[in-house]
Amino acid sequence: MNKQKITLFNPVSVIGSALLFLSSANSSVQATTFTGEPLYSEVRQYSTVIDSDPTDIYYPVVSDATVSTPIVLLLQGALVDKADYSNYASIVARYGFTVVVPNNLRTLQGPGGVELTGLASEQGQVPAVLDFMTLENNNPTSPVAGLLDTNSLGLLGHSFGGLVGIAALQDECFVGICTESYRFPEALKAGIFYGAAFNLRDLGFSGVPPIDNQAPIGLILGTKDGVIRPGTTVDTYNKIINSPKLFIELEGANHYGITNENNPVRAVNEPTLEQEVATETIARWSAAFLRAYVINDQDALNYINTLGDELDDNVTVTTAEKIPEPSYFTGLFAVSLLTLGRRFLKG
Questions:
Q1: What is the domain count for the chain?
Q2: Which domain holds residue 196?
């Protein structure tokens, strides 16, 4: 297997720097407290196959043999190749996670019963990846041997992958999302998703059904997202039954703020936030949420609940139990009203 070493500049203090700067540096740095900055300076990547899915795995270079990293599965958006998430996955890995990014090829039933074959996530990837990575941790020839905390699993997801992730955080096999039987894994601790909504209208539900989540859920929405209806994402947040949950609004990012490059063909709106800044911001908040609820990092919990919103001018964060029901055109405006005072204080 080919191994690639990736070193990134600190994306918090040097926003706009190259996200995949290659370096021969061989040291890793671990922070003592979470302040929003990455814990490790170096990330490596290798490729493998999981259940016939070509897969890229990103992991931090850890000098302390006693440190173990939780497993994080990134569920891709429909028709988005795993390579398009390399910047995002690398940044998340720098916060102390081993990030697994498969290319899952499957056939879906489209409108009118038309079959569509392409890259798309499914619930069965969650236990499959957990099982595979458990074997990797015990395989002496694996690059991540002995590095993994196999009792701690987090989820990331983009667009359709976020819908699948929300489904996987419930103890239910959803038709059309789950191709085989599914049980909620005990190791699964939390998930946070970008540009996603749990709209199952095409599967016979009237819009967004109640979400009986068995672990915390975070949602990040770009204000320029023209692919996902903002009102549906807000409705998704409101239908999450069990707290804690988190809603983050990212100013100026469109549906593809999470990928290496914008997709002008599929994106409805052009972003006003630089791509590198959007990707770093989504990755930082994703990692903070997972550190808070997968690792039980109290500094990260303080960051997502209080400190991060005060430091980051590009986001508006709410931990409210319910966001006022929006219409399609007023959804994001309704979210913004909740934190207008804090937005004003930020200048």
A1: 1
A2: 3-346
